[in-house]
Amino acid sequence: MTSINLEPGVNRPITDNTDDQPGVRQPLVLNMDRFNQVTQQVCQVAEARRTPMAWYVCFAAALGLMGLLGFCVLYLIVTGVGVWGLNNPVMWAYDITNFVFWVGIGHAGTLISAILFLFRQKWRTGINRFAEAMTIFAVICAGLFPGIHVGRVWVVYWLFPLPNQMEMWPQFRSPLLWDVFAVGTYFTVSLLFWFTGLVPDLATIRDRAKGKIQQVVYGAFALGWRGSNRHWHRYERAYLLLAALSTPLVLSVHSVVSFDFATSQLPGWHTTIFPPYFVAGAVFSGFAMVVTLAVPAREIFGLKNLITLRHLDNMNKVILVTGCMVGYAYAMEFFIAWYSGAIYEKFAFLNRAFGQYWWAYFLMVSCNVITPQLFWFKALRTSIPMMFILSLFVNVGMWFERFVIIVSSLANDFLPSSWDVFTPTWVDIGTFFGSFGLFMVLFLLFCRFVPMVAIAEVKAVMPQADPHFGEDQHDEAHESPAAEVRS
Amino acid sequence: MIHAPATISLDARNIELGATGQLARRVCFVVAFVCLLAAILLPVTGVMKWPLFWRCWLQNWIFVLQIPLGALFFVFIQHLTKAGWSTVIRRPAEVLASNLNWLWIGFIPIAVLVLTGSAGKLLPWSDMAMLFEEAPAEAHLVEGKLAYLNVPFFMIRAVCYFAIWAFLGTWFLRASIRQGRDGGLASTRAMQKMAPPAAILFGLSITFAAFDWIMSLSPGWFSTMFGVYFFCGTATCGFSTIIIVCLLLQRNGYLVNLISREHYQDMGKFLFAFGMIFWAYIGFSQYMLIWYANIPEETGWFLARQLGDWGWLSIWLLFGHFCIPFVFLISKHPKRDWKTLMLAAGWMLFFGWLDVYWLVMPTIPHDLASFATYDAAAEAYASEKAGLLRPVNWLLMVGMLSLFAAVTIGRLRSHPLLCRKDPWLNNSLHFENY
Amino acid sequence: MSTITTKPEKTRVARPSDPSKPKPYGLIAEFETPAQIVKAAERVRDEGYKWWDCCTPFPVHGLDKAMGIRQTILPIIVFFMGLSGTCTAFILQAFTNASDWSFWAVVWVTGYPYLISGKPLLSTPAFIPVMFELTILFSALTTVGLMFAFNGLPQLYHPLFRSKRFRRASDDRFFVVIEARDPRYFRSRTAEFLKSLDPVAVEEVQD
């Protein structure tokens, strides 16, 4: 149904495929009409003999930050949770904020690979590998925080229902334990999804590998995949099943995270809209992070023909939609806080907006609700610098959203005599920025050694992959949208 | 030319109802007239009390209203996502949605009650004197909400909702018909442009409509999730009805070979996703959070739905709206067979009705707070009746549905059943699941 | 467009059943486009071969039908494994938090009836999140595990990997593979048949 990518005689590469003519699907792979070109373009990064200097620079910086994380965590473990700025009413602050922030970012990957797959959004193929990897690394960063927050890190295995000499079990009515199961399941399933998608592409690299080490390593991870159609048949079924399973899983994970707060009686935390609102926020922040990473990555690794302007445009639309949903949730919370007639609820929300953390609330609303509205304009949606800046805004705004929810509600709860102010210490701040180091280290390693775009899936959505490709080209050239009625 | 298999015919015999359907329309009108008349005779002759009748009226009217609202959501979401697969089923959905321009008639009795100050039994906030007498504690709480819950503002909001819905419902049908006449891309582009504002208006209007017409029946109670829960109801009823209408048209020899099993499978998926899974997700989250925190202002609402018969009805709703159809529709085969899909859609439509019944009919007993324990309350109200078998429920449901069906058939007759010049038609005809 | 570049030295040499010499694995034919492989697959299927396959760089639409592959039973197994996940989670939670039973499972384990925040011992609403998560976990592990198991993977060595030509199966070429163990397999006749499908090349692969 799609027009051909390269018209003969036209040498100028196509860069803009964002035009929408009703009835016509724009190509998602630009300036390439042979499958081999896709293989070549993606594999060249992982196959390159020399690593670009920019990569080493970024990697060194990321390692440095990761060192900071390691130091802060070590200092915490040997000294105690007192090194954080926590105080009596505010017993959760940076750590849980960071946990929710990273889990939220980890939602885009599975959304792209699962929900967009079920909705038959073919553009997902350009970015899903990338986003899934980001998901896994973000969940690793997220898992770190509750792990170190428990205080006695060495008994963290008490979180799991393991028989022990004390005949003690975890308390399954606690939402914090649901988190263990939800995040654990999410990490496992995301990893399975990612790996399942990777197998055919690892086979591609294995078959092209020149060196013995590469052949062995990629060959081992490719599990001996040989593209048999009898295998593809079960593979596709399994992929569909995984997508169908991951879709409710994505919804559940951030819902369970929201239960940590919403099951309590604390004003500002106890509100029934939290589950869908947190999910929308997670998707929102996840897509923002994908844009933040995709914009430089497609530049540096030369993937502009695969991660096209259309992909970015679509992601920005998702950011706009989820940003509006988050705005809806903010409005509902505010309205119902007033409507409930409960004085504590009313106070909690007024305090958020005008209390001691007003600046955080202001940042949250302006970055999450107001600035994304700029994406209503196509010119801004398709402008690379603009989307990069706006996606950074969203990342900042979503961190502050969690900060506002957690800290402002705890700091000023029912009893004014127990109110207190939270101020982060250098360990709080160091751990937070250090977690970006961990994330970037993993991400840079991924970019260097793993095919960054799902090669097989991209090929499958090229018009040339259709067995009927080219059969009715002549007709299509004359096809007018206003088709004649056949009598 | 449309690249369609030779079996596909776009001639008038296949895509226009013409004179047929006249009989069905008349029968529907007669049934509607008889049922509604019989229903009104019940309170007139003193068989039942007026307040209960108006509560049943409100419940059935909201149920019927959910159908075009769900259809409207279906229509604009297709334009919003530039979907190609759905073109062949869009016209029935557009026609269903266009009913929003007359369904406000059902609200007139409620409006009259509210304006004359005699709706105290239905919407307690509209008669504060009575509320203070019956439940002073609740009245005290409600007093703080009167800036929102007052008669003039309530009426203004209702007018706004009806204006928005009538405009959107008829606008999409008209634009689509214009496109079917001239075949140009301008109308399609206009519909795509209208979809985002339509989504925002739709989301806000159904949220506040749900607050006004359902949540405020128990004015002390509140839930931020309630608008989303109501949306699930509209999706359930709307998608079920679109499926039923398409299947009925095809069984009667229209749209033959245009709507295929592939489209039904996708519609089945929509019903499965929104009507069952999303509903269960929202319903569970709302219930669990209120159950867990156990704050008296909030739990009363659910407690009223657990007393006596209502407890069984709640469990029935859980199984009938989620568990049973979930297992039934999870495989692709029942979604692709017209008999099983028809059964599932009819079943879901009924449980959509029961969901509204569960939302609207129970009232929170005013003395709930005086019981020391849950068990004491449960015992005191053990004989609470859900009244599901009251004839007025069924007379009003059949009557309103028949009236809705009669008007819908009339509108289906006056327009082609297919968006036959839609730019995505070709795409839709070749659509296959994977 | 397709010039047959069959390697004559490989197809011409007769292979007696001498155990010291490598046995043939089968014949592969290389095609350039999805359309060709679908047509070829239909022909091979109609010819009545049983031990054969198509190897493609991505799943080709309609090839399952052309090859006559039966639907996998994977989804049904996954459904029941999911159900068992739900039950496992419920039993786990009810046992550990709402019962005081003891039983032997490698070690003696005893439940502990927690009474917390005034909730009933068997707090079903609070158990649902974990029930849901384990349903998904069991289903997903089954899906991926069984998919690879049914496919006979991991299998790091395969005779087809001997062929240099076959390496393009993961890049841009489409192969029909007919195995020597097929009862209808006769080297020259099958090679002739494959050539009649208009491939780029036909090649014999040794086991």
Topology:
The complex is a heterotrimer of chains A (487), B (434) and C (207).
Chain A: H1 35-47, H2 53-79, H3 94-105, H4 107-118, H5 124-149, H6 175-208, H7 212-222, H8 229-262, H9 274-300, H10 309-339, H11 343-354, H12 358-370, H13 378-381, H14 384-411, H15 426-449, H16 455-460, H17 473-478
Chain B: H1 12-15, H2 22-44, H3 50-80, H4 87-98, H5 108-115, H6 128-134, H7 136-143, H8 151-182, H9 185-213, H10 226-251, H11 261-293, H12 296-304, H13 309-329, H14 333-336, H15 338-360, H16 374-380, H17 391-414, H18 425-429
Helix pairs in contact in B: 2-17, 3-4, 3-8, 3-9, 3-10, 3-15, 3-17, 4-8, 4-10, 6-7, 8-9, 9-10, 10-11, 10-15, 11-13, 11-15, 13-15
Chain C: H1 8-12, E1 24-31, H2 34-47, E2 52-55, H3 63-67, H4 74-98, E3 102-105, E4 107-110, H5 124-150, E5 174-179, H6 187-196, E6 201-206
Antiparallel strand pairs in C: 1-5, 1-6, 2-5, 3-4
Helix pairs in contact in C: 4-5
Overall description:
The complex is a heterotrimer of chains A (487), B (434) and C (207). With 487 residues, chain A is mostly helical. Chain A has one domain: Formate dehydrogenase/DMSO reductase fold (Up-down Bundle), CATH 1.20.1630.10. In chain A, 66% of the residues lie in helices and 0% in strands. Chain A is built from 17 helices and no strands. In chain A, helix 6 packs across helix 7 and helix 8 crosses helix 9. The radius of gyration of chain A is 24 Å and the shape is globular. Helices cover 71% and strands 0% of the residues of chain B. Chain B has one domain. By secondary structure, chain B is mainly alpha-helical. The mean pLDDT of chain B is 90. Chain B is built from 18 helices and no strands. Chain C is α+β, with helices and mostly antiparallel strands. Chain C has a four-stranded antiparallel sheet with strand order 2-5-1-6, with helices on one face. In chain C, strands 3-4 form a two-stranded antiparallel sheet. Chain C is elongated, with a radius of gyration of 27 Å. The N terminus of chain C is likely disordered. Classes of the chains: A mainly alpha (487), B mainly alpha (434), C alpha+beta (207). Chains in contact: A-B, A-C, B-C. Chains A and C meet through helix 1, helix 6, helix 8 and helix 16 of A and helix 2, strand 2, helix 3, helix 4 and strand 4 of C.
